[in-house]
């Protein structure tokens, strides 16, 4: 179980680092938005590239922030039923839901979105707007975001199995296994 918990810890660390980058992107997106608006109104100048960069940052926040949110146990769930279960029942529900729904759905979506990215990459797709950005880098965010979420699902499965076997307990606030 120790090698699996080490793998879980590595995945958690990866998504923690990505979450930190996403937190910085929130600030950067706000600064770009405010700067773009001020320049547009003060100098009557606007750039589609900056507007698209703002959209790209938001897309990265959503797609990469999902795995970080899942790691922190801040995701949406139907608490009405979940809270009625014992701690062991909650672990089983998390395990079954992640193993049979989240991970397969994420892997399927990553697989289905790969051709969407690859086609854009193969033709060097650019924005149709004047001064717009390349499109393929942001289209790569879609499959990679789903892969990161699936990886975090694997980490959560490992932690739930370890908790069910008594190797660790789960800190409810941050989903960190404690030994």
UniProtKB/TrEMBL annotation:
It is found in: Cell inner membrane. The keyword Nucleotide-binding does not apply. InterPro entries: DctQ (IPR055348), TRAP_DctQ (IPR007387). Residues 30-161 form the Tripartite ATP-independent periplasmic transporters DctQ component domain. It is a multi-pass membrane protein. One of its GO terms (cellular component) is plasma membrane. The keyword Metal-binding does not apply. It comes from the Bacteria. One of its GO terms (molecular function) is transmembrane transporter activity. Keywords: Cell inner membrane, Cell membrane, Membrane, Sugar transport, Transmembrane, Transmembrane helix, Transport. Pfam families: DctQ. Belongs to the TRAP transporter small permease family. Part of the tripartite ATP-independent periplasmic (TRAP) transport system. The complex comprises the extracytoplasmic solute receptor protein and the two transmembrane proteins. PANTHER family: 2,3-DIKETO-L-GULONATE TRAP TRANSPORTER SMALL PERMEASE PROTEIN YIAM, SLL1102 PROTEIN. This is TRAP transporter small permease protein. The lineage of its organism: Bacteria, Pseudomonadati, Pseudomonadota, Alphaproteobacteria, Hyphomicrobiales.
């Amino acid at each position: 179980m120790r090698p699996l918990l080490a793998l879980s810890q590595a995945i958690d660390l990866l998504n923690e680092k990505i979450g930190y980058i996403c937190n910085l992107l929130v600030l950067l997106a706000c600064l770009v938005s405010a700067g773009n608006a001020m320049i547009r109104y003060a100098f009557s100048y606007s750039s589609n590239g900056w507007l698209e960069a703002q959209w790209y940052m938001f897309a990265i926040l959503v797609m990469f922030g999902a795995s970080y949110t899942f790691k922190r146990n801040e995701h949406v769930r139907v608490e009405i039923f979940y809270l009625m279960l014992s701690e062991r029942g909650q672990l089983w529900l998390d395990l079954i839901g992640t193993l049979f729904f989240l991970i397969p759905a994420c892997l399927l979506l990553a697989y289905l979105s790969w051709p969407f990215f690859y086609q854009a990459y193969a033709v060097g797709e650019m924005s149709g707007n004047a001064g717009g950005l390349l499109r393929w880098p942001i289209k790569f965010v879609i499959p990679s975001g789903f892969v990161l979420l699936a990886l975090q699902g694997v980490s959560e499965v490992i932690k739930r199995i370890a908790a069910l076997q008594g190797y660790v307990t789960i800190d409810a606030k941050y989903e960190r296994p404690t030994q």
